[in-house]
Please model this.
Amino acid sequence: MNLAKLELDEHELVEIGKQLNETLDYFENLKDLNTSDISDDSLESSAINVFRDDVVTTQTQLDQTSILANAKQKKNNFFVVTRIL
Model:
């Protein structure tokens, strides 16, 4: 049997099974926590949106030749990269 394409023997499967069960048991314990004294607004964040609108300007546009100038490999005006899958 394999998990995430990892070859595991029977002993390893038993060990991982124990660890997963311990993790699930821990989360079961969280159900027992008394959260009645925690107000809903205490979970709110004071963070503000720091994103900006996307704006296309001529300063940020590059032509294809400039973009491909430092490519290690290119073919038909595309980057060539090593296949990973």
Q: What stands out?
A: The chain is about 30% helix and 10% strand. The mean pLDDT is 85.
